[in-house]
TrEMBL record:
Top-level division of the source organism's lineage: Bacteria
Classification lineage: Bacteria, Bacillati, Actinomycetota, Actinomycetes, Kitasatosporales
Protein name: Carbon-nitrogen family hydrolase
Keywords attached to this entry: Hydrolase
Gene3D superfamilies assigned: Carbon-nitrogen hydrolase
Organism: Streptomyces albiaxialis
Database matches in PANTHER family: DEAMINATED GLUTATHIONE AMIDASE, NITRILASE-RELATED
Length: 260
């Protein structure tokens, strides 16, 4: 993120990067890239309706590239209540909006997102034809119960977690560790898509990573440079991992209840 770049120019650049990925099954962008995850002072002025300028740019880019696109997130203004949300947009290859996800865990304790944004309530999965996706955003990565809910979702649980983020460099080690932990404990792929550069004076971790259900890193970006990462995922690997090492079956859902 170049702090001097306008949201319109970012949208144009991101759309062009997406168009370059024609042929991919899924393209993922990071959290709040049009405004900057830590640009709290701009949230109010840069808030968009769901079908605002980022939607328009990403809908066209997904359609032109013919890809499923997780377009990262925007500051969305709810048209009825006026409440702002950190909302992810996922597009189908024909450019139609497949789904949205409002970030459930807002970051900042009693500042930033926590006071400026409303809280999402619904875990969201996406029926991508190759594997069901489970959506989470940045700080959500610290809450394993959300990922379990996504694994348990009906009609099919998540097999690939998509986690756009604007994670600060200060806690880069947590980002890498937690992304791998979510992959290992849920035996699912994790696509951890972070930002490099600086958001409103906050240096970003970079280190986007594609992690397999065994916790192996298939591809990882460096700390500080904008990078396009790609990897081949094998959805059958999720079943193979879950069958050969069936820890998910050993979950005890009702703690404190004796064995029947
Ligand atoms: O949990 C963290 O350390 C970073 C989270 C964050 O920056 C966010 O959710 O925007």
């Amino acid at each position: 993120m170049d702090p001097d770049e306008s949201p319109d120019s970012r949208r144009e650049r991101a759309a062009s990067l997406v168009r370059d990925q024609a042929g991919a099954d899924l393209v993922v962008l990071p959290e709040l890239w049009p405004v900057g995850a830590f640009a709290f002072d701009s949230f109010e002025t840069e808030a968009e309706p769901l079908r605002g300028p980022t939607y328009e740019a990403m809908h066209a880019a997904a359609r032109d590239a013919g890809v499923w696109l997780h377009a990262g997130s925007i500051v969305e203004r709810d048209p009825v209540s006026g409440t702002l949300y950190n909302t992810s947009l996922v597009f189908q290859p024909d450019g139609e909006l497949a789904t949205t996800y409002r970030k459930i865990h807002r970051f900042g304790f009693d500042r930033g997102e926590a006071v400026l944004l409303g809280r999402g309530t619904e875990p969201v999965t996406v029926p991508h034809p190759k594997a069901t996706l489970g959506l989470a955003t940045c700080y959500d990565l610290r809450f394993p119960e959300l990922f379990r809910a996504l694994v348990d979702a009906e009609p099919e649980g998540a097999r690939v977690f998509v986690v756009p983020a604007g994670w600060p460099a200060k806690r880069a080690a947590h980002w890498s560790l937690l992304a791998r932990a979510r992959a290992v404990e849920n035996q699912a792929y994790v696509l951890a898509c972070g930002t490099a550069g600086t958001h409103a004076g906050v240096p970003q971790a970079g280190r986007s990573a594609i992690i397999d259900p065994w916790g192996e890193i298939l591809a990882e970006a460096p700390d500080a440079e904008e990078t396009v990462l790609d990897a081949d995922l094998d959805p059958a690997q999720v079943d193979k991992t879950r069958e050969s090492f069936p820890v998910l079956k050993d979950r005890v859902r009702e703690l404190g209840v004796p064995e029947a």
